[in-house]
Amino acid sequence: MFVAYDNNGSMINVAENKWSKERLKKIRQQVNFYCPVCSNQVELKIGSVIKAHFAHKKSTSCLLKSEAESEYHMRGKLELYEWLQTQSSIDDVQLEPYLSRIKQRPDILFKKGEKRNVIEYQCSVIEPSILLKRSLKYKEQNIINFWIAGAKTLKRTGSYAFQLSSFQWLFARKTKLSEPPAIIAYSPDLKAFIILHTIIPFSPRSIIGNHQTYPTHSISFHELFTQYNHKARIMPAWINKIRRFRMKTIGYKSKDAASFNHFLYQTRQLPLSYLPSLAFLPLNSTYLIESPVYVWQGWILIYIDLLPIKCAFTFRDIYHYFAEKVTDGTISIRSLPFIDVHYSFAIKDYLLNLCHFSFLKQTQKNVFIKERSITWTTRVEELLISDNKVMNKFR
Where is the Competence protein CoiA nuclease-like domain (predicted)? Predict the structure, then answer.
C-alpha cells in the first residue's frame, strides 16, 4: 500500500512526486508508520524495482490484508491514480482511502460531478462473493464502482478469439441495451488500457470479440466507457469457430452440452456438431446465457421443430419452457453483477432473428407462427455452406 499514518496522525502518501528516495530513507529513520485500517505498525519499503510502499509486518494481521499486492498490481494502481489526476472532469482523486463506514479500502476514490466513484484494479482471482460484497457496499453508499482487470490475465487464442473465466465475466459492463458488453483491462507494462468489446460467447469460456489498445495519454475517462460495436469485423472468426466445432471431434463437454448431446442422439441420431446453422446465431444478447450458444438456441429450435407448420405460439410459451430448463440445470445463466438485464431478453432477441430468416413470422407483439421446418442433415458440406449463407445474411 502507498498510504499510512505517521506518529502525529498525518496521512503520508509515498506515491506523491514530492518524495525522493533520499527523503524517504531519512524520514524512515525518524518516524513510525501505521496502517489506516488496523492501526498496526507498518514498514516503509524503498526498493530499486518496486516503488516505495508500506507493508504490514509478517506477525501482524489486518482486516484488509487478505490480498498480497504484486509489483504489477502496484504499478498499475499508481498509474491509474496518476491518469485520473489529469482528467479535467474528475476531482478529489484519492489513493487507497479507507472508508470506515463500510470498512472498505478501494484502490482509488474520486469525484465526477457530484458523484463519488471508486476504481478497483484487480489482477488476481478472488472469490466472486468478495467482489459482489464490495460492490454492494459501495452501492449502499451511492458510490459508483468500476472494476478494471489486469491486462496480463486476458488469454488471447486467436486474432478475435479469447478465453474468459467465470471470474473475468464479472467485470463485463455495457452502456446500451442493444449492444454486447465490454471488459476493460489495464497494462502497466504498456501504460495502456485494453478494451475487449463486442463480446460474443460461443461457449462458457470461449468468446469471439474485438479488442483495442489505448495508451493512457490518448483516452479520457468518459471515452473509456464508450461502447465499440464492430460485429462485421469478427464475423469471419465466428464462422471459423463454427467450422472448427463441426470438423473437430468433441472431447470434454460441459454438463448442459452433454445433456443436449445425449438428447439429440436419442431423438435425431445426430451429435451437437450437426445442429442447423440457426443454432449458432451470434446475437448481441448471447452473453446473458452461460450455456454454449448452440445449446440454448438448439433447445429453442427443438421446441419449435415439434410444432406443426403455421402453428402459433407465444413468447411466454417459449420463456416458460426455457425457464424450466434453467431450473433443472439443463441451461445455465451467466452471473453479471454490473449488467441488469434479464436472460429473457436473449430469448426474445433470438425469436426476432428467426423471423429475419423467415423461419418464424411475428403476427403480434409476442405471438409467432412457425413458417417452415428445420432441415436436418448428416452432410457436413451442406452445413458449412449453410453456415456461410446464414452468417453472411446475419451481418
Answer: 69-227
